[in-house]
Amino acid sequence: xxxxxxxxxxxxxxxxxxxxxxxxxxxxxxxxxxxxxxxxxxxxxxxxxxxxxxxxxxxxxxxxxxxxxxxxxxxxxxxxxxxxxxxxxxxxxxxxxxxxxxxxxxxxxxxxxxxxxxxxxxxxxxxxxxxxxxxxxxxxxxxxxxxxxxxxxxxxxxxxxxxxxxxxxxxxxxxxxxxxxxxxxxxxxxxxxxxxxxxxxxxxxxxxxxxxxxxxxxxxxxxxxxxxxxxxxxxxxxxxxxxxxxxxxxxxxxxxxxxxxxxxxxxxxxxxxxxxxxxxxxxxxxxxxxxxxxxxxxxxxxxxxxxxxxxxxxxxxxxxxxxxxxxxxxxxxxxxxxxxxxxxxxxxxxxxxxxxxxxxxxxxxxxxxxxxxxxxxxxxxxxxxxxxxxxxxxxxxxxxxxxxxxxxxxxxxxxxxxxxxxxxxxxxxxxxxxxxxxxxxxxxxxxxxxxx
Length: 452
Hints:
This protein is of the alpha+beta class.
């Protein structure tokens, strides 16, 4: 079992026991980990501490229960693990900016911290192959649009954090825009009776830290409506992520965020660049299933430009010091940028460019150090990279303790690497998501990082 599978088991357990007392020790048993290592791994994969995550998921479920005015607020609070009315109100307002009483009077659409589906982070499907995960069916296909489609609606600014993978909480700005559009829709001219509704994300005139979001519906060719925004889905090639959920609430509440995160990884994995917008295409829902599509325009120019850049850099040239962008383009793998960002933010370590004439791996490399110790050394290769992590005698016990949770590749590499001067020099080929997580775990051992 991989480390992410162990954490997913604990996530599933939490979701089924939100109304009960949830203890760290019980979750660690579900994941088959020690409480210390479980908490450290949970934070790394979920981006929240266990207690914070449980609180946010309880609030998400409690907000749904509040829609029924037959139940008292204090009863809802107690059902979801809050000790009293004041504690529940404080937590609810901290998360969403309004009190439970205000929400009950005016039930706005809220952004919740969604339940993660870690499988989507470590599974890469090919085109036209459906993937079923946690009640959601995802399929990626390519389409060519020969005739432009026009959409008319209203637009507004949405903070970037609101669209960043379902991690932000608060009142959903996009939901407010949709509510206003649906209120005005009957009076908008030229809309097609059976046309799709569309949510468009693009820059427009948005301020820094925000993007423009338009909620609209399909209009007749050359249709215009004075006082309303319009957007043309232009001719060209698109990568389309089709996804289906059990109901519409699940579709817009979590599936869209999961699909967005999945597609960001899918596009990078296939060396494809998205154009300057993303479109959410909504369809009429059917009993027992709701369906929508995420349309991403292909931008071939960026890919072509990146290939030309890659061909001009010689990593064996010790005089020409590369930039991070040059190395990233040469590696041409999203995993490289993710690991660099992880080390720089998690350990506040800056990259050091070094040229090596070592026969083991000559050429330019990047070192990350902390407190005088090298956390890892990254060697750029075409299409992937190598992460060198040195495990000393004092780190060996913890490394071998977590080894059964690592990939079979890393287990074989570890056992097959000879020990010299009390150290194992692990040259890890980082070619997929699960190996990347192995590398993060071994870097954490190298730093001896404790759970905060």
